[in-house]
Amino acid sequence: MALARMIAPLCVVTACATDAPGGDDTGSGPFFERSMFWNQDVSNVPKAANSDEWIAAIHAAGGWGNQDHLRVDFSFDVLHADASAPQTFTPTDQFQVPDCDHIPVPVPAIGNVEGETSYKCSAGGDCHLIVLDDKNRKLYEMWKASISTMFSGGCLAVWDLTRKYDETLRGDQCTSADGAGLPIAPLLFNADEVASGSIEHAIRFVLPNDRVTQGFVRPATHAAYTSGGLELPFYGVHLRLRADYPVERLTTTGAQVVARALQKYGMYHADGGEDTLTAQSDKYTTAKWDGLLGPQDLYPLEVSDFEVVDHGEGIPITNDCQR
């Protein structure tokens, strides 16, 4: 069976990073109080045994989305809960049991869902709603949220920011607000980080679903049903920009900051889509993207400039969520 093929010796993500020279899982954040997989320096972790084959397969299948251009999506926002009363929502057909949480969400009075100027999902996008409850140390992430005359939503994943989750996160075979079952917010980068000159965590990325095969690898806990061939990587694949990539050739300082993070921490595949990298908008940050980083500034980065970080074996999709 293709999904059971071994791509490297099985390893828990933390062990792979901490056992490697230069690797560490110290520190914490973004948002979470305990270090997690996105905090790990993987610059010296061995690449997967079949890294070259997977990279070549992605390239042959069409490469990145957007006609093989590594584009940055600036449409996500992380809102902060205020004194507003939590709101209950009506689940849509994108809500799955037991994967998703059905509890009130502390929606702030002013805010918006992904890709919109308000809470109403009107343009047909993913409309992620991300709310950080600083007081209660919870992170609320919802897919397909919309608030107008009523509050409806797809899958809601509530993350405990005081907890260090094990390799099955919220539950094995369980989705979240993202297809791979990962949290979204800690894998987003923002203008304040880039302006400071350093992004100290891994980054979220997506690929068209015809460039991923069925199944997933850790740290993912779930996968969409994809149409990619057996030669392609799984959901959750961890890519790292090659150490020998000449970062100084990128024409903006912001692009160089992102590239250095991709060399040190890499990027984790989280969902299907066209815009490769995911950043926060600058609505709620001090620094602004204008003159710092544009959506096309990382176009020079090609699939062949990356390698696959060592993972365990692929896990078949069963959708038997165990919370």
Describe, in plain words, how this protein is organized in 3D:
The longest helix has 12 residues, at 253-264. Mean pLDDT is 92; it is low at 1-25. Helix content is 12%, strand content 16%. It has helices spanning 13-18, 51-60, 65-68, 191-196, 253-264; strands at residues 72-76, 79-80, 90-91, 129-133, 138-142, 146-147, 151-153, 156-160, 203-207, 238-241, 267-272, 277-280, 306-308. With 323 residues, it is of the alpha/beta class. It is globular and about 50 Å long. Strands 2-4-5-8 form a 4-stranded mixed sheet, with no helix packed on it. Strands 9-11-10-13 form a 4-stranded mixed sheet.
Question: What features would you highlight for this structure?
Answer:
323 residues, alpha/beta, 4-stranded mixed beta sheet, 13 strands, 12% helix
Topology:
Blueprint (H helix, E strand, L loop, with lengths): L12 H6 L32 H10 L4 H4 L3 E5 L2 E2 L9 E2 L37 E5 L4 E5 L3 E2 L3 E3 L2 E5 L30 H6 L6 E5 L30 E4 L11 H12 L2 E6 L4 E4 L25 E3 L15
Concise structural overview:
The protein has 323 residues and is of the alpha/beta class. It contains 5 helices and 13 strands.
